[in-house]
């Protein structure tokens, strides 16, 4: 398999992580998850080196200076996320395509950097109201943090048309099926997109 990247981006709560997990289990021989580095604290059940590489802000800034990231962003004030160059190289060395579950701006940076090697998919929630309910239903954030996520989501939705594909997620099963078609068309160069 040649060097390809599949980028899933969406506002927090749109369902991209659930779709990505589904695809990773279905296409385990063809895809590997790109683990992002971040400076925030792990949430309950998150594992360093599996969900994220949790590093200090000082270490993150050092890696920026050393040009170890292919993309990075200060997603929230004082909280950085980024993709290490070594992570992409590790996955490509294993003869797999790189699967990203990444914020919207990071996804666009990757798409612009890797161009035709990348398929950038924007997961669109049914509405901002549904997105808000999903975020509140998680119960993982404070009210202030939830409001910050919702404001960020409003801005991120404006970038949808800059992606290769907008994948609507108003029905998770259908969204997963559509995502499978997109992946197969891209990885196996099938031109019978429906």
CATH arch. level architecture:
3-Layer(aba) Sandwich
Global structural class: alpha/beta
How many domains, in number, for the residues? 1
The CATH superfamily is known as P-loop containing nucleotide triphosphate hydrolases
Do you know the CATH topology?
Answer: Rossmann fold
Query: Low-confidence parts, pLDDT < 50 over ≥5 residues?
Result: none
CATH top level is Alpha Beta
Proportion of strand residues: 15-25%
Strand count, sense and barrel status of the largest sheet are: 5 strands, parallel
Number of strands: 9
Strand order of the largest sheet: 2-7-1-8-9
Per DSSP, the total helix count is: 7
Q: Could you give a short description of this structure?
A:
The protein has helices at 16-26, 57-65, 85-93, 104-114, 128-138, 143-156, 172-187, and strands spanning 5-9, 31-33, 37-38, 53-54, 69-76, 79-84, 97-102, 118-124, 165-168. The chain is an alpha/beta fold.
Describe the structure.
The protein has helices at residues 16-26, 57-65, 85-93, 104-114, 128-138, 143-156, 172-187, and strands at residues 5-9, 31-33, 37-38, 53-54, 69-76, 79-84, 97-102, 118-124, 165-168. With 194 residues, the chain is α/β, with parallel strands linked by helices. It has a single domain, classed as 3-Layer(aba) Sandwich (Rossmann fold). It has a five-stranded parallel β-sheet with strand order 2-7-1-8-9, with helices on both faces. Strand 5 (69-76) and strand 6 form a beta hairpin. Helix 5 (128-138) packs antiparallel against helix 6. The longest helix is centred in the C-terminal third of the chain and has 16 residues, at 172-187. The protein is globular and about 45 Å long. The two termini are 23 Å apart.
